[in-house]
Amino acid sequence: EQRNPGQPEFIQAVAEVMESLWPFISEHPRYAEHGLLDRLVEPERVIQFRVSWVDDRGEVQVNRGFRIQHSSAIGPFKGGLRFHPSVNLSVLKFLAFEQTFKNALTTLPMGGGKGGSDFDPKGRSPGEVMRFCQSFMTELYRHVGSDTDVPAGDIGVGGREIGFLAGMMKKLSNKASCVFTGKGLSFGGSLIRPEATGYGTVYFAEEMLRHAGKTMAGMTVSVSGSGNVAQYGIEKAMALGAKVITASDSSGTVIDEAGFTAEKLAVLMDVKNVHYGRVSEYAERLGLYFEAGKRPWHVPVDIAFPCATQNEIDGDDAAMLVRNGVKCVAEGANMPCNAAAVRVFEQNGVLYAPGKASNAGGVATSGLEMSQNAMRLSWTREEVDGRLLEIMQGIHRMCLQYGTRPDGTVSYSDGANVAGFVKVADAMLSQGVI
Ligand code: NDP
């Protein structure tokens, strides 16, 4: 805390991982040598810069841009950019730290990074978003590259923004590679990348349920958020026979006991992706019940997929979910459950998957986009989806390997933390003190 004052999210993420790792490191003390842990919690490089741009009224706006290059031990820095007013150094350092372990779990050669800005895209015109993205790139371009650091999307950065960022990258670098993943299909993007995080989270939950002798078919599901991860999580959960009864955003929660259908999901996607609107507008268009200002955790369900943002489930929310009979919680977002919530789930026999395991499908498919770009060819939907499923099943196996307790139950958080750590730590130990 003394080294990182005013960075509560970063300290929270490091403390949770270290608590998980401690028993393993006590048994394998070589992982505490050569200053390994001290080096692991210090980002390799932190970049902060000014982003100035002119809004539609002709006024100058100034935002803060960041890139955290946390670890390149196993490959180029890799992780998304987030545009949201809550972005600060602490949030991005926590995300870059988590990303390092997540990327290791995918088994693909990617290090960990994260970046973004406190820019708020809500209410901004397409022209303003483009000018902001272009200004952001005039600094970021010198720090990224296909073998150095490969950014992608996150909250507030979807296909439209990646297009603007990658376009400016190409202009400034005079290289067609564009560096980013999550690109449009017409300029090097991969099929299934938009779907990958949501699909992967649901695939992971199905693996957990199967290991426990259950299946998702026939279960009720709550989803928080209504952005990229939430939308495709809803789609895949429906495809596996579950009934999804909530979605949300910062305006509140829609509760639909009849459950989502393909037609309703298409309306949600239109509201969110075409009109950049609110969940309340979705509820209004379909005449559904909407609770302003509320999150979905009081709604009784078998499975919860938190897919909005960090710290959206606290100990009380978790206790309510448990009282209402929840069996499985898989994180689509990064660190949506705080430490108290995770304790409640793990102590009550709920199958709980941390984001670094369950939402790794997005970055894994970004890794597959990098492979396709390097080979200058494109795989089919089936090929990419098949690889995504295999990767999620592989991550599940690693969690079992390192997270199975003596009584046969599984701590997926311990499993994911130790498995990711071992890979990054072995690479760091091989490369000497750098
Ligand atoms: P989007 O911008 O597409 O959607 C974000 C959703 O979360 C929106 O519904 C948004 O509502 C809501 N939200 C964001 N911040 C808050 C907040 N402070 N309070 C309440 N609601 C909020 O982002 P993604 O779907 O891409 O990302 C969602 C989560 O998944 C994030 O934690 C991200 O890090 C994680 N993730 C994303 C991956 C990806 O491939 N996109 C990969 C791995 C993890 P509103 O519009 O009202 O703000």
UniProtKB/TrEMBL annotation:
Transmembrane annotation, as ranges: none
Domain of life, per lineage: Bacteria
Keyword Oxidoreductase: yes
One Pfam family cited in the UniProt record for this chain: ELFV_dehydrog_N
GO molecular function terms attached to this record: glutamate dehydrogenase (NADP+) activity
SMART domains associated with the record: ELFV_dehydrog
SUBUNIT field: Homohexamer.
NCBIfam families found in the cross-reference section: PRK09414.1
Family: Belongs to the Glu/Leu/Phe/Val dehydrogenases family.
Name of this protein: Glutamate dehydrogenase
Taxonomic source organism: Aromatoleum bremense
Native organism taxonomy: Bacteria, Pseudomonadati, Pseudomonadota, Betaproteobacteria, Rhodocyclales
